Amino acid sequence: xxxxxxxxxxxxxxxxxxxxxxxxxxxxxxxxxxxxxxxxxxxxxxxxxxxxxxxxxxxxxxxxxxxxxxxxxxxxxxxxxxxxxxxxxxxxxxxxxxxxxxxxxxxxxxxxxxxxxxxxxxxxxxxxxxxxxxxxxxxxxxxxxxxxxxxxxxxxxxxxxxxxxxxxxxxxxxxxxxxxxxxxxxxxxxxxxxxxxxxxxxxxxxxxxxxxxxxxxxxxxxxxxxxxxxxxxxxxxxxxxxxxxxxxxxxxxxxxxxxxxxxxxxxxxxxxxxxxxxxxxxxxxxxxxxxxxxxxxxxxxxxxxxxxxxxxxxxxxxxxxxxxxxxxxxxxxxxxxx
Length: 338
Fold this sequence. Notes:
Blueprint: H1 3-30, H2 32-35, H3 39-49, H4 53-70, H5 72-81, H6 83-102, H7 109-139, H8 159-183, H9 187-217, H10 223-227, H11 233-250, H12 254-276, E1 279-281, E2 290-291, H13 299-326
Antiparallel strand pairs: 1-2
């Protein structure tokens, strides 16, 4: 295994880490109005993610930094081509942050309503647009000989990418619901359990539709699996996670349900990544696709940055485990909470 493949795996791990961890944050925010009916319930929802959301975003920053360091051409092409979409994502993440931090500064109902809406909007926009971006990458981007994106913003809103956007949104909703089931009790937990079956079914249906549509739009994503059937174990992880989540929630085993949902999210991302390999950004013209080799930094850079990554990532992992351990258990409202 060479350095290029190691960095492909490392970036993949960081993206999966972000999707699993910040996925439940985005899911909780997107379901904010459906779950939280009273001021107390809304406070519980925000307190459930309050200690974690900013730490979870570190995985996004680390993943973006790793992509820039290892595959700068990919970073340049994707971020410049998706400029407007990325600005909307960043706007959403900013709105979510200020919504969480500012809603409790005053007790006025109108004040809190405004920040509540920004918390919802700032969660819903990224949850939807991340999937739309993935859909456009999966189907192949129109790139010129300099690897610049030649389409427009409206071209990104095509039916296939919107379908994958809805699939990604449903995955985050499922992740958020299993998290709330694990962290709350009483009426709020019952409401989350009732929503889970509908969200789970939506995820399954959208996943099946997405697989069939992908075969029509980008059949080359199935070639690696045809050549190496052993890779089919990865889609099996998704299937296992989906089944595990449903059975665990039905038996009130909410921690196991969250683990199953996380497996489904991770398996879905890894399935796409292995289907694209060695491409990082497939192009409409296959000869212009950005791969782990033609888009990579020099071997010296990859080696030096790998040393830094192997030092920094364990620190992020330790911090994440520590915070989740400290704030484990059911959410209880306190005077110093959000």
